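Action item from last week, closing it out:
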Amino acid sequence: MPHELPVTLAEWQRNSRETLRVRLDRFNGQTIIDCRSWWSDAAGELRPGKSGLTLAVRHLPDLADALAKALAHARSTGLLVDREGTS
């Protein structure tokens, strides 16, 4: 069964002007993972910004592993405090 793309998987405020989105999409016939900063235009519509990371979806397992390692390292070294207030 084909999947409808694009699909937004996660979204959160980066700052007062930007929203970060993680999406699966298609580009040039290839399925991609797109992690991008979006901004609001004058009409309040979100538009994709130039900053972001776009990779072929085949790189997703390696990206997920790298992010899990970065998260574990940031927690273990005290660089990141969990939302509950503990590192």
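Closing note: The CA atoms of residues 74 and 80 lie 5 Å apart.
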